[in-house]
Structures are given as structure tokens and as C-alpha cells.
Amino acid sequence: VEFLYCDLASMKSIRQFVQRFKAKNCPLHVLVNNAGVMLVPEKKTEDGFEEHFGLNYLGHFLLTNLLLDTLKQSGTHSHNARIITVSSATHYVGKLHLNDLQSRCSYSPHGAYAQSKLALVLFTYRLQHLLTANGSHVTANVVDPGVVNTELYKHVSWVVKVAKWMTAWLFFKTPEEGASTTIFAAVSPEMEGAGGCYLYNEERTKSADVAYDEELQRRLWTESCKMVGISDKSGRVP
């Protein structure tokens, strides 16, 4: 195991990380996008992005795109490279505000978090479409880990914290249990060659209807490219 530092809330840090990783000339068979914050007070990243959208979504969008060429080189016909992105059931109530992705008009921690998680699902589906169109040996899937007992809940109200403390053993998954679907997506032979799936409890299931809107997927992708400063190479792909 080797550790390389990467701050997903910093576009500069992400670019530096990718540089250091590529300098090692290692193959990349599995990329798990799992960083995140939840229900944080209104705050901006160093690049000026609303923190949920900047860290949860844009950081992973940039990281994945900068590593795509390595992933494509690493995948083969019989062993695809795999991209697994961790979303949340919260995406079902999320709304994507393309005219206000930074939640400047009216900030709601719940709304901003849900939007970032919906964006991750839309991103995964669009990414898989592009990978398939290019004939790449790479798959992209999105995972709902369930309700997991982690430090993500540190910004909830004290009432929720007390309720969580009292019921965690009954209703919450342990971190190990929460990781099981991500691990399944990363290594299971059942998922070989399968992309564009939404997984929960190691099973393929249906995401929110809006996540299948291909026009919304395209528009979010194009806007995301502008925001992180990379060229939109998907323009030639329908």
C-alpha cells in the first residue's frame, strides 16, 4: 500500500496528484471516487466552488477525466478497468440547478448535498456512454452504500446525533458493511464488462428517473468541463 496525497477540494492538488501518479508509470485498474462532505454550512473551496458541489462532484469529475487515458491503457477486453463512484439515496430527492450549480440564490445544506449526489449519477451514466462510444475497455458504475455509521454526520443537529447514537446499532451499517457494494463493483466477476449501473446492496437497481435524462447528462458534462478547465472532448459523441 502506498499513499499519495490528494485534496479533492482543490483543483491544483488534484492535478499535482495525477502528475505524481503518472510519473510512476503504473497501470490503473480500479478508481473508486469516494470522498465527500455532507450537510456542511455554506462554504467555498479554494477555487470558489460551493463545497458540496466542488468536493463531492467536481473534484471527482476532474480526477476521473485526468486519469481516463491511464485507465483506457490499463483495461483489456477480458479485464476492463473499472470506475466506481459513490453516490447516495439522497440523489432521489436531488434537483440539478444548471443555472445555479453553486447554490448562490438560496443555500440549503440538504439541497446542495442532494444535488452533488445526483450530479455523480448523471456523470457516471454520461461517462459510460462516452466510454462505450469510444470502444474503451473501461466501465463506470455508481454505488449507493446505504446509511453508514461514519463521521459524515458531524454537521447534523444534536437531535439527529442523539437519535443516531441510540439507533445506530439497529439501522446503520458499519463502515465495513457500507463498503461491501463498492468492493463488489470493483472486483466481482459478475460486474466484468458491465457499466452504467446503479448498485445497492450488491444488486443493480433503478436510480432516480431524472438521472436517465441524456440531455441533462450532456449539459452537466459540458458545464463541468468549463468549470474545471478541461476541454470537452465529448462534443463529437451524440
TrEMBL record:
> What's the catalysed reaction?
a di-trans,poly-cis-polyprenol + NAD(+) = a di-trans,poly-cis-polyprenal + NADH + H(+); a di-trans,poly-cis-polyprenol + NADP(+) = a di-trans,poly-cis-polyprenal + NADPH + H(+); a di-trans,poly-cis-dolichol + NADP(+) = a di-trans,poly-cis-dolichal + NADPH + H(+); a di-trans,poly-cis-dolichol + NAD(+) = a di-trans,poly-cis-dolichal + NADH + H(+)
InterPro entries cross-referenced by the UniProt entry:
NAD(P)-bd_dom_sf, SDR_fam
Q: Which Gene3D superfamilies is this protein grouped with?
A: NAD(P)-binding Rossmann-like Domain
Query: Major place of localization?
Result: other
Lineage: superkingdom: Eukaryota
- GO cellular component terms? extracellular region; lipid droplet
What Pfam family is a match for this entry? adh_short
Q: What's the EC number here? A: 1.1.1.441
The stretch of residues making up the signal peptide is: none
Q: Which UniProt keywords apply?
A: Lipid droplet, NAD, NADP, Oxidoreductase, Secreted
What are the recorded GO MF terms, alphabetically?
oxidoreductase activity
Subcellular compartments: Lipid droplet; Secreted
Which pathway is this protein assigned to?
Protein modification; protein glycosylation
Q: What does this protein do?
A: Oxidoreductase that plays a key role in early steps of protein N-linked glycosylation by mediating two non-consecutive steps in dolichol biosynthesis. Acts both as a NAD(+)-dependent dehydrogenase and as a NADPH-dependent reductase during the conversion of polyprenol into dolichol. First catalyzes the NAD(+)-dependent dehydrogenation of polyprenol into polyprenal; polyprenal is then reduced into dolichal by SRD5A3. It then catalyzes the NADPH-dependent reduction of dolichal into dolichol. May also acts as a positive regulator of starvation-induced autophagy.
Family per similarity comment: Belongs to the short-chain dehydrogenases/reductases (SDR) family.
According to UniProt, the name of this protein is Polyprenol dehydrogenase
Q: What is the lineage of its organism?
A: Eukaryota, Metazoa, Chordata, Craniata, Vertebrata
Q: Which gene encodes it?
A: Dhrsx
